[in-house]
Write a structure and sequence with these properties.
Blueprint: H1 18-32, H2 38-57, H3 61-65, E1 72-73, E2 78-81, E3 90-93, H4 96-105, H5 120-133, H6 143-156, H7 161-168, H8 184-201, E4 208-218, E5 222-229, E6 234-240, H9 241-247, E7 254-258, E8 265-268, E9 279-289, E10 294-302, E11 305-312, H10 313-319, E12 326-331, E13 337-340
Helix pairs in contact: 1-2, 1-5, 2-4, 2-6, 7-8
Length: 341
């Protein structure tokens, strides 16, 4: 069974970051389009599709190679992956750019049967070669490393662990009672929701919570929205009553709550800070990126949730914050931006 700690650990060095993934994809595309002859080019396009599917779904190599054309639901932006012990398999949402690529390329490859039936050893060799062409160590160019990189990318974007587990094809533990009632369809909606936000932002965002609205209190001017995330955290947001009505926010609505890093304040020590911030989360510092003026501090508050804070380097030194420290990450309700599904 996969858990966040097995991915977001020092072994994550065996995963590619977003820049490396971009370089590897560029190397694959350059290779795929740099050969004369239609037959050879189609063969290379087939391998490119195998790479892209692993890159954007986190699927296993053997799962991709055994895909049948009927497993592609391009209208619904989904791919169904099957395993021998599964009757129906699992469906994974795919981003719009991959949908468009499949619509263009599958007809060229025949669009029938096991359209991606390629020798696994050939795919592995091509992954190694493209990694080297991109200036990436060979060991990071394996299909397994690319698959793991997608999982790390999702977790660092605060996609809830049960959602990542379902995408990756791992058994998902029963959600604790504190997670409210999240059905399989809710999990699928969170997955689609993340892909939409990812496409808009173009980059991963740590400071994001996915969940359902637990409580709405509407006042004359402002409304208080209390969301409970999939991992059990409660996040409070204050928006205008007009926005609450316009967005149709009510208990049970699926939303994403985001807060920008500069609005996240760090308090050192294990004791809860005495402040008016409605959102207060205790965690441990997992990463510090110091700068001459400002520094970035990443705080892990649960198995699959991290918060990033931007503070002045002078403040960080005054607080004597270092990796491994227990701290509190806090932010005001007015700083929370709500996105609706």
């Amino acid at each position: 069974m996969m858990n966040a700690s097995s991915i977001l650990t020092p072994s994550s060095k065996k995963a590619l970051d977003l820049v490396q993934l971009g370089k590897l994809e560029k190397a694959f595309r350059t290779w795929a389009t740099s050969t004369p002859g239609k037959k050879r080019q189609l063969s290379r396009l087939r391998v490119l599709l195998v790479f892209l599917i692993i890159r954007y779904t986190g699927a296993r190599l053997n799962e991709v190679l055994t895909l049948d054309v009927s497993d592609f639901d391009l209208k619904g932006s989904r791919i169904r992956f099957r395993k021998e012990e599964e009757a129906d398999g699992r469906e994974v949402q795919i981003p719009k750019q991959l949908v468009n690529e499949l619509k263009t390329t599958l007809p060229l490859l025949g669009n029938t049967g096991d359209v991606l039936n390629v020798d696994a050893a050939h795919v592995r060799r091509r992954c190694y070669n493209c990694a080297e062409a991109a200036g990436i160590p060979r060991e990071l160019g394996t299909p397994e490393s690319i698959r793991k990189s997608r999982a790390v990318e999702l977790l660092q974007s605060n996609v809830p662990l049960p959602v990542v587990q379902r995408i990756m094809g791992h058994s998902t533990p029963a959600l604790a009672a504190s997670y409210v009632d999240f059905s399989e369809e809710d999990i699928r909606r969170v997955e689609r929701f993340h892909l939409e936000l990812e496409a808009k932002h173009k980059t991963s965002a740590r400071n994001r919570f996915y969940g359902k609205i637990e409580k709405v209190v509407v006042g004359d001017v402002q409304a208080s929205i209390v969301m409970i995330a999939v991992d059990g955290h409660r996040v409070v947001s204050v928006i205008t009553s007009h926005s609450q009505r316009q967005l149709g926010l009510k208990p049970g609505s699926l939303i994403a709550a985001e807060v920008k890093a500069p609005w996240v304040i760090i308090h050192g020590g294990a004791d809860a800070p005495k402040c008016t911030a409605e959102n207060q989360f205790m965690g441990s510092v997992t990463k510090i990126s110091p700068g001459k003026v400002n520094s970035e501090v990443v705080v892990k508050i649960s198995e699959s949730t991290e918060l990033c804070s931007i503070l002045t380097e002078k403040s960080r030194q005054r607080l004597q914050i270092k990796e491994g420290d227990t701290v509190w990450a806090v932010f005001n309700a007015a700083s929370v931006v709500i996105n609706v599904d």
